[in-house]
Design brief:
mainly alpha, 20 helices, globular, about 500 residues
């Protein structure tokens, strides 16, 4: 399992690097203002529906059933099931695309009502969203092929395909002078990337004998079971979208640039979460599904305990860094071009708040499969709804009540994530579906020590370096580099000393 995590994590890390370069270029060219806010809304809008129709539903509702058929050797039945699901998906997506394109002005007015106070911003957002929204129907095809590849333990393509969006957007941003403005350039990059991702995944699937065919949608017992599961997951996925939707609405009433400042904080927070969270979610669910299908409960538990320990090992140090030196991070990474120091300070407050929920955001992908692998999609959906209610209530209290601004939005997200994890663990333990092993508890002490060492080293490096480095050019980048070096040394030393107590596989040594 650890080898597969490294493979998926490696390709996902490459995606995060290209995404990081895209964000830096986007911040430099678009800055944080009317153009940037309009594009961010148009960019995130299809992404929210991707959560509902994509990974957020296909993986929990489709993958365990497909993986079970494949593990039992029923490959023809698995292919037929995949084709039928795909046919229904396409029928729904075509109808949804036509309706969304027709009613986009009304949709954008509901999502970002505050944009109406800035002349031209709302019509611009509508135009951009009409360019980016067709990305959704392209990506759901790629997502289903990714799920099929993951189910047969072919993980690399599913981890690599997201790079195409970053590369396409970098290309169009660099050619922004050829577009009406830079926001249009970024929007067209999103749509172009959808075609690139689709062609890549079709090729990757064909290499392993996997494909999807359009057939006449038929209502069979298997499809009925799938849609029952899908309905439960969709409720949970839709509720997840509600919280970011509230972010869009509340941020549209804040100062111009607020939506962009929140976006860039979230992008930094997503760097570690994307690499590890996606890797664990990609590998763990099919592994648990296959083992449980074969009656191997112990093997399933071991995989889950290793994943939980690894999640904490790799996310707690980032929590430490994001809460201790957020200003240094945002200044070093984004302050250039049209993105100002003031923008970075506001983003830093949001980054610190997001960091509090980072481990929980990763652990949701560990404990959710407890239920999904057993074909139970209702319990995680109910838990998600409860967590989102808390999420929204906190945001309204902090932003509209206490005036916390975008930091309040980020903190609401973090608290909601911990409520989600807490409820999943509570219910799984009560039903005897989750057992924490002795190895997991033994790993906790060095994990906490590594995180504490990271925090102390990063703070000391910035504090001491700030008094020694008197040059202005690249000063923030130098301070961040010192913090990374110092915290990396301390973190590495703790991991090396306690390696035999950590879930590092053969890297732990004899």
């Amino acid at each position: 399992m650890f080898k597969r995590l490294l493979s998926v994590g490696g390709f996902t890390l490459l995606s995060r690097i290209t995404g990081f370069l895209r964000d830096v270029l986007q911040a430099k060219i678009l800055g944080a203002g009317v153009l940037s806010d309009a594009f961010v809304v148009a960019f995130l809008f299809p992404g929210y529906f991707r959560t509902i129709f994509g990974e957020g539903t296909v993986n929990p509702a489709f993958l365990p059933r497909y993986a079970t058929l494949w593990a039992r050797g029923e490959k023809n039945a698995a292919a037929t099931f995949a084709d039928r699901v795909f046919s229904w998906q396409m029928l729904v997506q075509v109808v949804f695309l036509v309706l969304a394109m027709a009613f986009m002005p009304a949709i954008m007015h509901v999502i970002s009502p505050g944009f109406a106070k800035n002349p031209g911003q709302l019509p611009l957002t509508v135009s951009l969203a009409r360019i980016t929204f067709p990305y959704l129907i392209l990506t759901v095809v790629a997502i289903q092929i990714s799920a099929m590849l993951n189910a047969v333990e072919r993980f690399w393509a599913a981890a690599a395909w997201s790079n195409f969006q970053n590369v396409a957007m970098i290309g169009t941003l660099l050619l922004s002078n050829w577009f009406p403005n830079a926001a249009y350039a970024a929007a067209w990059g999103v749509l172009i990337s959808g075609f690139l991702q689709l062609f890549f995944m079709l090729w990757a699937g064909a290499r392993h004998g996997l494909s999807l065919r359009i057939t006449w949608p038929r209502w069979t017992p298997e499809i009925k079971e799938f849609f029952m599961a899908l309905g439960a997951v969709t409720i949970g996925a839709a509720s997840v979208v509600v919280a970011p939707f509230i972010d869009l609405v509340l941020a549209s009433y804040l100062a111009a640039g607020s939506r962009s400042e929140l976006y860039y904080a979230d992008r930094i927070n997503q760097l570690p979460l994307g690499v590890l969270g996606i890797a664990i979610g990609t590998v763990l669910l099919p592994e648990m599904s296959a083992k449980l299908a074969l009656g191997d409960r112990d093997g399933s538990d071991r995989a889950q305990n290793r994943s939980a320990a690894l999640s904490l090992l790799f996310t707690l140090p980032f929590l430490a860094a994001f809460t201790v030196i957020p200003q240094t991070i945002m200044r070093a990474v984004f302050v250039r071009g049209h993105f100002s120091t003031e923008d970075a300070l506001l983003s830093a407050a949001a980054l610190g708040a997001y960091g509090i929920g980072l481990p929980a955001m990763a652990l949701v992908r560990v404990f959710g499969p407890t239920f999904y692998a057993r074909h139970d999609t209702r319990t995680p959906a109910r838990v998600t709804v409860a967590a989102v209610v808390v999420n929204i209530a906190v945001k309204l209290a902090l932003v509209r009540g206490a005036g916390f601004g975008i930091a309040g939005l980020a903190l609401g997200t973090a608290i909601g994530a911990w409520v989600n994890v807490g409820l999943l663990v509570f219910l799984a333990r009560r039903r005897d579906l989750l057992k924490f092993s002795r190895d997991f508890w033994r790993a906790l002490v060095p994990i906490v020590l590594a995180a504490a060492g990271t925090a102390g080293a990063a703070y000391a490096a910035v504090d001491i370096g700030g008094g020694l480095l008197h040059f202005h050019l690249f000063r923030q980048q130098a301070l961040l580099a010192l913090a990374i070096l110092a915290s990396g040394i301390v973190y590495g030393a703790v991991v090396l000393i306690f390696r035999k107590r950590l879930p590092l596989g053969r890297f732990a040594g004899s």
